[in-house]
Amino acid sequence: MDGSPRQVWQALTDPEHLRGWFCDEAEVDFSPGAGTYRCTGRHVPCGARPERLLEWEPGRLVRFHWTPSGDETVTFRLTPSEGFTRLEVTHVCQRNDCATEDWRLMTDCLWAYFTLLLKQWVETGSTGYRLTFDPDPPSVIRFRITCPVPADEAFAALTRPDRLDCWISSGAQVEPRVGGKYSLGWGTAGEDGPGRITAWTEGRLLAYTWFESGRQTEVVWRISPHDGGCTVELEHGDFGGYTAACLGCRLGWADWMNVLWLHLRGRPAARTWRGALPFEHSRTTALS
Q1: Where are the beta strands (DSSP E) in the chain?
Q2: What is the pLDDT of residue 188?
Q3: 20 to 30 A from 106, CA-CA: which of 45, 81, 116, 277?
Q4: Over the stretch 149-185, which tens digit does the pLDDT of each residue have?
Q5: pLDDT(285) > 60
Q6: Contact 268, 262 (CB under 8 A)
Q7: What whole-number distance in Å separates Cα of residue 131 and Cα of residue 163?
Q8: How far from 208 is each of 66, 119, 187, 211, 282, CA to CA, in Å?
Q9: How many CB atoms sit inside 10 A of residue 58's CB?
Q10: What is the reported pLDDT for 189?
């Protein structure tokens, strides 16, 4: 990210900064014998309770328990890199239920989301969209961000293939009409991701079908002028009783809304992820 290790370290360890991008209440104490890294509130995932500080090296590394039982740990490691700072996040779990693909995918998405918030905070002093973690979410996802660009510019970022490829897609295809194809270049048509355009109002409205594990929903984007810029609203649903799918999409869209937020400010938002390591490797790493 575009910031010095000192700036990133401050964002990771100063309670005032942590409240800006990570949690609602924070307490960090590096005093000998204290070892506190406490982060709580509605912006922290359900079941997580960062509290005990395990290891730290000022400006370089901080490691803490992610859960009260201590069976999950998170490490932030900082490395200077040609005027930037490289952040490596390692999340290790020693429970058997962490061996599931769903857990690994959700955890990977979680840190994609949080590190993007951190990037926003370090580079701009503000954040785009902060997700409230609700174990029983509404069946329709509704998010909103404010951007300092005209509505037509935001609409172009959602509808022009070359612009989509800058922040969300790989080989996007858009047929600009109702019934036209809307593809982000990932997923299997009719099973995962977008399908066909259901509404199109130039500069103001875009809607298309969306498939999640074969179940059809609809994604709607609404763009409105606002205070010299615009607001971009996302609506996705209805998920009905499919809570797991809704939770996953909420986390995914929170991440992508923040990528869009950076893109519309002219800032690169690319990430390099190793992804979740196999469970046995993670367990070995944790014990070594």
Answers
A1: 25-29, 36-40, 53-57, 61-65, 72-81, 84-93, 141-147, 173-174, 182-183, 192-201, 205-212, 215-226, 229-237
A2: 63
A3: 81
A4: 999 999 999 999 999 999 999 899 999 999 999 999 8
A5: no
A6: yes
A7: 25
A8: 38, 30, 15, 10, 39
A9: 11
A10: 61
